[in-house]
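Q: I'm writing up a methods section and want to include an example of the input and output format. Could you take the sequence below and give the corresponding predicted structure tokens, formatted cleanly so I can copy it straight into the document?
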Amino acid sequence: MRSRVMISMVGRLTSRLRQRSEVDRRRGVYAPTWPDSPLDPVDCPTFSQPFSAVPSEVRAARAFVTALLGPDHPCHDDAILLTSELAGNVIRHAVRGEFAVSVALMPGGVKITVGDRGSAAIPRPRTAGDDDLSGRGLAMVDALATRWGFQRTSGNTSVWFHLAEPVRADA
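A: Here is the clean output for your methods example:
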């Protein structure tokens, strides 16, 4: 029963992501980046931790983010999901065997960066088929993050995303 629910959820998400990526493809948008903005965590507390690029470290990366945000943080669930996806991408695509996760605690949200030491490809969302077992990670980042982008420097690739806290109705 649980697997049917998961298959249904993945199917709905895939459909939603496919619709969004088709609109982006027509506009020529793949991996958005933004100029310097208030989202850049200049004076915000930022914490980083290195991890080995092995599957068991995805759980450790999630635990790191949870320890910083706390399970009651309004961005927690999306932050954990997207961190997992980006860490998984590093494990599949990175040239060297390590990655780092940085968490910037910002007023009204959080910015998380996952960096590796030399993946060969430019990060961009792709359209995965219904039966594909991978290929939805960056599409999920694109769908759930307030903003996201990537930076490549000296053979290093960092993918970042910003999650804004939802605006409360009573605020």
